[in-house]
Structure formats: structure tokens, C-alpha cells
Amino acid sequence: xxxxxxxxxxxxxxxxxxxxxxxxxxxxxxxxxxxxxxxxxxxxxxxxxxxxxxxxxxxxxxxxxxxxxxxxxxxxxxxxxxxxxxxxxxxxxxxxxxxxxxxxxxxxxxxxxxxxxxxxxxxxxxxxxxxxxxxxxxxxxxxxxxxxxxxxxxxxxxxxxxxxxxxxxxxxxxxxxxxxxxxxxxxxxxxxxxxxxxxxxxxxxxxxxxxxxxxxxxxxxxxxxxxxxxxxxxxxxxxxxxxxxxxxxxxxxxxxxxxxxxxxxxxxxxxxxxxxxxxxxxxxxxxxxxxxxxxxxxxxxxxxxxxxxxxxxxxxxxxxxxxxxxxxxxxxxxxxxxxxxxxxxxxxxxxxxxxxxxxxxxxxxxxxxxxxxxxxxxxxxxxxxxxxxxxxxxxxxxxxxxxxxxxxxxxxxxxxxxxxxxxxxxxxxxxxxxxxxxxxxxxxxxxxxxxxxxxxxx
Length: 458
Ligand code: AMP
Hints:
The chain is of the alpha/beta class and about 450 residues long. It has 17 helices and 14 strands. It has two domains: about 210 residues, Rossmann fold; about 160 residues, P-loop containing nucleotide triphosphate hydrolases (Rossmann fold, 3-Layer(aba) Sandwich). Helix 2 runs parallel beside helix 3 and helix 13 crosses helix 14. Bound molecules: adenosine monophosphate. Adenosine monophosphate (AMP) binds next to helix 3. Adenosine monophosphate binds next to helix 3.
């Protein structure tokens, strides 16, 4: 199938062609016609499957209007499509995709997020925009300040809905939805479909078409995953060894804390490896610059806390490394989704110490797959990691995971997110779903429909 068959018009087809997209991905084939038909949509799709173009292309098609460029007047502070995303990085990414896909159209877009001055954003809204990509906290703040109005809104997209719920944004999202016109088209994209997302869909979405990329598409991310068992105090030495011995020129390394990130960068530098870090302790301007340098290849090794786990869209990112395993198995899936995008091959390496073991078990249960283990010469562990068992259930692990998440151990990108958590009407049902290590049969997406269970083992 070609893009032309999807009823997209010439300016959009031309922009897509220039980007080198030859055929639509699986999610695009399903989502684009559904959206163009005017129906609401719920789509189960991972980052990396081309989902952004899956909703941006039809939105552009529907908003472009019939009038020639320049004739349509934009009213100040009004928008026609609203895309709500969990992180500022993703907001920037989605908006830049809109600019790319809409380069031959008279469509104005804007990315809006917290942590930066309100005034330039307010001015941009006054000047007039068509599509707003925003994080929930700043969006609600702007709506309260009457800096934007929703009366001309036609389309709402909730992107990475599971992530937004996980970050405690449900209260803000509900308050925003209450302000929207009843007559609108709703699109919800989520990597996983836990109960909280279903509840959100029930309240916000009307008689939707549901799609998932459960077909045998070749665009399913191809990711080779392996772990190395390592003593905790040997992790940085092992990482340096892997970078040097395997001549890794590019790696995105996930670590738990911002202090850990800074320390790791200096340890790597002492061993002659140039690295940079992004975390919530660095200003937005610095983070944006570092991401741009990582994308351009100027920075090869990037150490990141959770803030970077979504929204990094780099063609051909070859490798992610879990220096620390995440508390939540879904976060592991999102992290490794940085690589193997749009059908390319990728590698996901995890350095697993004894204290990561229970997290490893939860991740393997979620994937329904034992991840390959490799031994690296010179790094024999003092305490050997137990053999994995997909049936392993540890009540203490569950409690510990829940406790550490509740304490806010996990880094969050937004004060608003933390605040709204306390008011989250879906908190219990959602948390139950996320914090209880999923049994194999209880994976959020049915196994038969879950493309991640087909991740290639090396
Ligand atoms: P996404 O899942 O939206 O984050 O997209 C992942 C990557 O796939 C991005 O780098 C897109 O530029 C790329 N992409 C999206 N659609 C296509 C397509 N039809 N063909 C090739 N690459 C694509």
C-alpha cells in the first residue's frame, strides 16, 4: 500500500515522500482511514511504530481546509486540534513532526510545556495557531488564565495515555476535557491499555474504532535484548568496558537518579569516555541542546533519568542501556522502544545486580520471555544472580516497588503531575494495575495482540 491510497492530498504526500517514507506503517494503515472517516479512535501502539504520523497526517488533512493558503483567518487564542502529551520532550518532538509533515500547508502549530516563561507562549496563542501540542499542567494553567479558548476545537488527541496516567496527570486531563466542546473527534494512543486508560477512554471517547498493530507487520520493532549480571559497585567499570570493547559509538543509558547520572558521567570521563547527562536538574534549554547534539551524533553517550524515556525520536538509535532497571515493567518497554524504531534493528542491554533481580523478574513476566544473559570476561559476580523464572512472584518486591513509587522515588518531570496525583480519581484502579507485577495472563494487552511479545531474541 502507498500513502496516496490513504486519501491524503498532494502537499502531505510530497512532504512524506521527502522524508523518505515509502509505505505507511501498520498503525498508519489502520489509523489514517479511521481518523479520516471522522470516528473516534483508540489505538494500541508503541512509540517507534510510526504512530505520530498515524494521527498527525489525517489531522493535517482534515484541518487544511479548501481555501488557498493565507485566506483563512485564525482567531486569537483559539485552536482547532489539541494534542496532549506527557513530557516536554515529546511535545517538542510531535510539534516538529507536524512542521515536517505540514511544510506545504498553511497550518500553524505550537509546542507548549511548563518550566519556561509563560509570556512568549501566550503571545504565540494570541498570534493564532491551529494545532497545539501541550503537556497537561501548563495547558490547564493557560486555560485558567484564559490565555486560550477551546470553542473552535474539533480534534483531541491523548498521546501516550498510559504514560500520562502513570505520571499522575489524570486530574488535569479530566479538567481540560470538561472545558472542551462536546462535538469533537477524539483519538487516544497508548502503548498499553491498563484499566486506567480504559476508564479514561470511557469518559472521553465516543463509540470508538479500536485498532492495534497486532498483525504480522514487518514494522514491529526488532530489538535484541540481553542482560549482564554484575555486582552493583562494578556497574560503571562494566559499562566503560562494554563501550570500549564493543566500540559503542551511540548509547542512551538510563539511570535512576540525577545524582547517579552526574556521577556516572564523571566516572566515564575518568576512563576516557565522553558522555553527557539529561535529568530534571538541568534547565530546559540545556536539555534541548543536549538532545539536539545527541541526535546529530555530536554526543555519542547520553545518560538519562526517566524524563528522557519518552519523546526522544532519533532515527537509527542503535542501543539503549538500562544501568538501573525501572520499577515498572512497562517503563522497560517504553525505554527499549527508543531503539528498533520504524522497522530498524536495535539493541537493549541491561546491567543487572542482585537488587535489580525482582524488577528483572517482573519485566520478564511482562514480556513473557526470559531475556538472554551474557557473561563478560573479567566481570564475574561475587553474588550470582539467581536463575530467572517466569512464575516468580515476590510479595516483598511488590510492596517495595509500590512504596518507592509512592514516595516519589521515581523522577517526575512536572510539579503539576505530582500535585494532581493526590486527586486522581482513577488512582486506585490504575495503581493496582501498574504496581502489581503482572502475571503472564494478566498482561495489559492480550498476549496474542501484544507486538512486544514478538521482540526478537538474539
Ligand atoms: P513514532 O512511532 O511516531 O515515534 O515514529 C518512529 C519513527 O518512524 C520516526 O523516526 C518517524 O520519522 C519514522 N516513520 C514514521 N512513519 C514512517 C514510515 N511510513 N516509513 C518510514 N519511517 C517512518
